[in-house]
Amino acid sequence: MAALTLYLVRHPRPLIAPGVCYGQLDVAAENPAPIVERLRRELPPGLPLWSSPLQRCRTLAEALQPAPRLDARLMELDFGAWEGRPWDAIARAELDAWAADIDGYAPPGGESPRQLQQRVLAFVDELPAGAHLLVTHAGVIRALLAAAAGETQAAALNRPAPAYGSLTRLDYSSGSR
Questions:
Q1: How far is CA 162 from CA 23, 157, 176, in A?
Q2: Sequence-ordered list of residues with C-beta below 8 angstroms from that of 13, at least 6 positions apart, any chain
Q3: What is the CATH number of the domain that holds 135?
Q4: 3-state secondary structure string, 9-47?
Q5: What are the pLDDT digits (tens) for 129-149?
Q6: pLDDT digits (tens, 9 = 90+) for 42-70
Q7: Domain limits at 168?
Q8: What percent of the chain has pLDDT over 90?
Q9: Model-level pTM?
Q10: Cα–Cα nearest to 102, from 154, 55, 151, 141
Q11: Is the distance from CB of 109 to CB of 80 less than 8 angstroms?
Q12: How many CB atoms are located within 10 Å of the residue 177 CB?
């Protein structure tokens, strides 16, 4: 088991209309400069930086470090056929099925929160001991916090989403799940 300190940063606010499902939809985000300025003061120097390849994360990561390591396992939940659609245009029966099994339900063509957590934990389990900076998404951060606390994804989704540009520190023992 590797002892890890994970510095988890959520991407800047995406440039997309409110109420649209955008998990793995690759949308741009607000200018990361104010977040970068704050993070440079708050983070230890020289951390290895890993990022979701989606541009809302990648742009922030590249502003922090010229060559971040990109890993698709740090991407947001894949909402499949729901991507890019207004939440109120998604069939009520599909939303009800998700609500009935938050951990296990996958939208058509997408993945379940349990699958998201499994891929994120597989990534973290490969990290060497020490501190790492991850620029990622709310779903990934929630999945890691839930795993560290021994909670289900359903419990994690009941927590408020981390704010855009926020920094969360997590002391984590890889392989302890």
A1: 15, 11, 24
A2: 29, 30, 164, 165
A3: 3.40.50.1240
A4: EECCCECCCCCECCCCCCCCECCCHHHHHHHHHHCCCCC
A5: 999 999 999 999 999 999 999
A6: 999 999 999 999 999 999 999 999 999 99
A7: 3-173
A8: 90
A9: 0.94
A10: 154
A11: yes
A12: 13
